[in-house]
Design a protein that fits this description.
- The chain contains four helices and 30 strands.
- With about 525 residues, the chain is α+β, with helices and mostly antiparallel strands.
- A hairpin with a 2-residue loop joins strand 13 and strand 14.
- Helix content is about 20%, strand content about 25%.
Length: about 525
């Protein structure tokens, strides 16, 4: 600043602008990938960023686009961090979910609930929880989506009403050493003696109510060992002992709304009776008096069967209680079986399924309504495919024929080459000219005649002189001499130099030929 007299004062003010605004960072949307493999390569668009400085912020991420993500650890979280020049940070994230192929959406059971992971009824896993008084019809309670098929069937009728069985059954078995016979009088006396033994030990007293059939002597099943016939055809007593089976049966209480509790009470009654009989056998107090003999049961032979449960027709045993085969199933005699594809059953307790109308199918087993029978989607005709297949097959057949022809031709050429030397050897054996053998009977010798080409017009012969036909007998008698070969025209003084053996070269190429003519 300057006053009126010209005095000047200066000052300086420093202004600092500090950036405290974080950059803007926007991540892409969540990514969902479906694959049948254990992992998948996932790509996404880079996040958008901006900063008030006008300069792009520095960007980092926990995973990069193009990374592999595994289904087992899904969902995955991908985090991006942005930082401007002033050091202001920003963060955003999104998820990458790698899923297997989806299955048809499961129905919620009418008398229960369906607990699925993350509420996904297309991929699960899903677990059925039935209401009180209802039972899961069959299979494990938890179902998994395997590829595009559920590991177990779950329908609207998977939870079915439970009721107590009509009867609960069990049996005890024991053996009495001694003689035995299938004679009716012997078996009647033995049954009476066994009943009296139960009475004596307090199991079949008049004041006690027998509700399991232990004291019904008509139910005692007796079996003897091997029996022998006498000379007169009568059965002899067996010494293999008397085996006795006593069936126990209890009418189950079907009242109330607690069938499981009623069955448990019936099991206790049967277990108590079996234990009482076993104690008598083990102590040796179970004895039978009949025909003046005493039979004592052996403790080691005592056995008891497991409890079985009897249900009405159209029902099966599930966890000791009876359940009616629901809609979508039929009773096959042993169990409730789901209707297969293209069949349905709207009623419960049935013995078969109904067929869908012609031209329709069901997508899943266990259909319980005719409306679930639908027309399958039509497949688009593939007109070009058969033509391409036929053309490819024709071209392949033509190529195969050409290859076969080439093989046959080559084989014929090879066979001809192999036959030629054989023919020459055969000619030499049949038409060997023994006149030229050296030494001969007169003690004279002639040079070897191999690889010498000769022509004998009177015999029509052309070829190796070794294969020439023999000379007439009158000529053989003439001792060979220099005069005997007059008229022979030699191509050179020594026609045998530089010749190649026919075994090594049968073509006669490079051979100095000699023309031989017969002597007139």
């Amino acid at each position: 600043a300057t006053d009126q007299w010209g005095n000047m004062v200066k000052c300086r003010i420093e202004i600092t602008i500090q950036d405290v605004t974080a950059p803007e960072l926007v991540c892409p949307a969540d990514v969902v990938i479906e694959t049948s493999e254990e992992a998948a390569t996932v790509r996404w668009d880079a996040p958008t960023t901006s900063d008030n400085s006008g300069k792009p912020p520095m960007l980092t991420s926990s995973r990069t686009s193009g990374s592999r993500f595994y289904r087992e650890d899904s969902p995955h979280t991908v985090t991006y961090n942005a930082r401007d020049e002033a050091g202001n940070p920003s963060t955003c994230s999104f998820t990458v979910a790698v899923q297997g192929p989806s299955c048809p959406e499961l129905e919620v059971p009418r008398y229960g609930r369906l607990d699925c992971k993350e509420g996904d009824r297309k991929r699960g896993p899903c677990t059925v929880v039935c209401n009180r008084g209802y039972q899961l019809l069959s299979g494990p309670a938890t179902s998994y989506c395997l590829g595009s098929v559920w590991s177990s069937i779950i329908t609207t009728y998977s939870c079915v009403r439970a009721s107590a069985p009509r009867r609960q059954r069990r049996s005890v078995n024991m053996r009495f050493p001694g003689y035995c016979s299938n004679d009716e009088s012997f078996q009647t006396g033995f049954r009476n003696g066994l009943y009296q033994s139960f009475q004596t030990n307090g199991l079949c007293s008049d004041s006690q109510t027998d509700n399991v059939g232990l004291c019904n002597r008509g139910n005692y099943n007796m079996n003897c060992g091997l029996e022998k016939r006498s000379l007169f055809g009568r059965l002899k007593r067996s010494d293999h002992g008397v085996s006795v089976e006593i069936p126990l049966e209890l009418q189950t209480d079907q009242s109330g709304d607690d069938p499981e509790g009623n069955v448990e009470e019936g099991d206790k009654v049967l277990d108590k009776t079996v234990q009482q009989v076993e104690d008598l056998v083990d102590s040796g107090q179970l004895t039978v008096q009949t025909d003046g003999e005493t039979y004592t049961s052996e403790g080691a032979t005592f056995t008891a069967s497991a409890i079985t449960y009897e249900c009405d027709q159209g029902m099966v045993v599930v966890n000791k209680v009876c359940v009616t085969c629901p809609a979508g199933t039929y009773h096959d005699g042993d169990q409730c079986t789901y209707c297969t594809q293209s069949f349905y059953q709207p009623s419960e307790g049935q013995l078969s399924c109904s067929t869908c109308p012609e031209g329709t199918i069901t997508h899943l087993p266990g259909a319980h309504s005719k409306e679930q029978c639908v027309v399958p989607p039509k497949k688009e005709p593939q007109t070009g495919l058969p033509i391409a297949i036929i053309a490819g097959a024709g071209a392949g057949a033509a190529l195969l024929i050409v290859i076969i022809i080439l093989i046959v031709c080559c084989a014929r050429r090879a066979s001809k080459k192999q036959e030629m030397p054989k023919q020459n050897r055969h000619m030499r054996q049949d038409f060997g000219n023994r006149v030229y053998e050296a030494p001969n009977d007169l003690g004279t010798s002639v040079p070897p005649q191999e690889n010498v080409y000769a022509e004998i017009p009177e015999y029509g012969f052309k070829g190796d002189i070794v294969a020439a036909p023999p000379l007439p007998a009158e000529r053989k008698s003439i001792p060979p001499s220099e005069d005997a070969y007059q008229g022979l025209q030699k191509t050179q003084d020594n026609p045998y130099q530089g010749l190649q053996h026919p075994a090594r070269d049968n073509t006669y190429q490079g051979i100095n030929k000699m023309k031989v003519t017969t002597i007139a």
